[in-house]
Design a protein that fits this description.
Length: 357
């Protein structure tokens, strides 16, 4: 099996799994209890917090553990938006967890503004000047777009927002960026950041919201998942993918005739490909039958009609159905890419010859 949908989720790193098993066996105690086992569990979780803070280059603030990155995004929305006069600005390429929450707020009378994308997938900075105002309580953007992988210029985005309203809370959804790219939340001037484990060969069911000092977000109640928290920190510490640049370069340089890459391809982990007049779902199913797994875009929006990111980039409705998303992880090899390209070429040829309908 060749797995090329790592942006959807990843196979757990054996080192992470081993660390989690050790916790489940030896440090399973409720971290809220006062006896020695609970105290040690709390210390272990604090060590995970410290590790994640260091990975984010956060010099202050708080790490809040959640069940998912979606929950973390919702926490910051609920924290910042209390009354309809509190406006929210999102971007056209944001994850469904942000988009759907924004639409729900809009139905309750909140004003929601959406910053468009340029044709290359980058956020339109000039639109920020028009859409952010003195009533904008919260600005959210995805540091890496989950559909096309565009790595946004966070420094320029923060600067543009601050120029319009220095008090606006700026939140970055970094689920697809964390541990893959070295970014400094302190230097960037972010107020909060979402990360999760299962995009970096860690466990599912654990996310994190970092907030800077002075922002008092209500922490979810309940018993913490010790093993998942340690798994997230261990995954971040052990995420190494030195081959990704080589694999990505080979992929884009050897695409079959007629295929092209959508957007600025400044992120080697995710590549969105426009197929030559062929539905992506048809190709996906044909490749799946050969045990090669690829995606069509964000997994959380895979059953939606159309694609908001591609629509914002002015791809036609037909073109939006003609895409594949290839996303790489720690386990991928050059042989994986070569096999995928060969089978993609064969599949496109078979479709042209009507061997696959």
């Amino acid at each position: 099996m060749i797995y090329l949908d790592n942006a959807a989720t990843t196979k757990i790193n054996p080192t992470v799994l081993q660390a989690m098993q050790m916790v489940e066996q030896n440090n399973f105690y409720n971290a809220n209890t006062l006896y020695l086992g609970g105290v040690r569990a709390a210390q272990m979780i604090d060590q995970a917090r410290t590790s994640l803070m260091q990975k984010l280059h956060a010099t202050d603030g708080q790490i809040i553990f959640t069940n998912t990155a979606t929950q973390a995004n919702h926490l910051i929305i609920d924290h910042c938006l209390h009354r309809p006069e509190h406006q929210l600005v999102i971007t056209a390429g944001d994850h469904n967890s942000v988009y759907l929450a924004a639409k729900a707020r809009e139905q309750r009378g909140y004003i929601i503004n959406t910053v468009p994308l340029q044709r290359n997938g980058m956020i339109d900075l000039t639109a920020i000047d028009q859409l952010v105002n003195d009533k904008t309580a919260l600005f959210i953007f995805s540091l890496v777009n989950s559909d096309i992988g565009t790595y946004q210029d966070a420094a320029a985005i923060v600067s543009a927002v601050r120029a319009r309203n220095p008090k606006t809370h700026i939140h970055a959804d970094a689920a697809q960026a964390f541990a893959k790219f070295d970014f400094d939340v302190t230097k960037l001037g972010l107020d909060s950041v979402t990360i999760c484990g299962h995009k970096i060969h860690g466990p599912k069911g654990v996310g994190t919201l970092w907030v800077r000092t002075g922002i008092n977000v209500e922490t979810p109640h309940g018993t913490l998942n010790n093993a998942a928290i340690v798994g997230l920190a261990t995954a971040a510490e052990n995420f190494h993918c030195p081959q990704v640049t080589t694999l990505h370069r080979y992929l884009v340089e050897h695409l079959p005739t007629g295929c092209r890459v959508n957007g600025i391809n400044n992120n080697p982990y995710i590549t969105n490909i426009l197929l030559p007049n062929v539905f992506g779902e048809t190709v996906l199913n044909a490749l799946s039958a050969k045990n090669i797994y690829v995606g069509l875009g964000s997994a959380c929006a895979s059953h939606s009609k159309g694609n908001r990111t591609l629509d914002a980039m002015k791809l036609s409705p037909k073109e939006q159905k003609q895409v594949l998303r290839i996303s790489l992880g720690m386990n991928n090899t050059l042989d994986d890419i070569k096999t995928f390209l060969a089978e993609l070429t064969n599949t496109l040829s078979a479709i042209r010859n009507h061997d696959i309908l």
